[in-house]
Amino acid sequence: MKIALGSDKSGFTAKEAVKAWLTQEGYEFEDLGTLDPEQPQPYYQVAAKAAPLVADGTFDRAVLICGTGAGMCIVSNKFKGVHAVVCESPYTAKMARAINNAKVLCMGGWVVGPELAVDMTKTFLNTEWCQDLEDWRAANMHKFAAQLDAIEDRNYGK
Questions:
Q1: Per-residue pLDDT reduced to its tens digit, 33-71
Q2: What average pLDDT does the segment 71-80 reach?
Q3: 3 state DSSP class of 32
Q4: Is 130 a catalytic residue?
Q5: Distance CA 51, CA 49 (A)
Q6: At how many degrees (to 10) do helices 114-125 and 90-98 cross?
Q7: What mean pLDDT do residues 82-97 have?
Q8: Nearest C-alpha neighbor of 70 from the set 81, 90, 84, 52
Q9: Which listed residue (66, 73, 87, 130) is catalytic?
């Protein structure tokens, strides 16, 4: 699994903790910035770099961290097929993957500390779509995925 990682200045400390964990666990990833908190990139530039690379399959998933996570999420969701979510707990990160098949985890550096950011990333990366769901719910998620694709095609074009 190849991961895109990024933050603005507000998410830098949490991103560095996630980066250390990804390195320790042997994940293939690329840090798309901010690389130096003294020369920060705004959230909208970082998300606009990462999201299209998830959309085109260069990266399987992304972890993006700004002040609240909302900015990264808004920008990321402008790209077809990305499905970014803001999470504030390992449980929401798990459900975002299992139910929503989210590919981009967005977090807030002002909201979660570095340790929680690592826990959420671990959960997000280790959860598959429909994992641990009842059969009826998984079937509904697959139906919904087709409907979501149709909605995206109408709104973004094919």
A1: 999 999 999 999 999 999 999 999 999 999 999 999 999
A2: 96
A3: coil
A4: no
A5: 6
A6: 20
A7: 97
A8: 84
A9: 66
Strands across the sheet containing 28-31:
28-31, 2-7, 61-66, 104-108, 84-86
Q: Would you state the structure tokens that stand for residue 129, as one six-digit string?
A: 């779509």
Rg (CA), the chain: 15
Is pTM beyond 0.85 here?
yes
Q: How many Cα atoms occupy the beta-carbon half-sphere of 108 within 13 Å?
A: 11
Nearest Cα to Cα of residue 77 among 95, 92, 96: 96
**What pLDDT does residue 39 have?**
96
Q: DSSP letters of 71-139?
A: HHHHHHTTSTT--EEE-SSHHHHHHHHHTT---EEEEETTTS-HHHHHHHHHHHHT--TTTT--HHHHH
Tell me how far the alpha carbon of residue 1 is from its chain's centroid.
13
Delineate the domains of the chain, giving CATH numbers in brackets. Answer: 2-128 (3.40.1400.10)
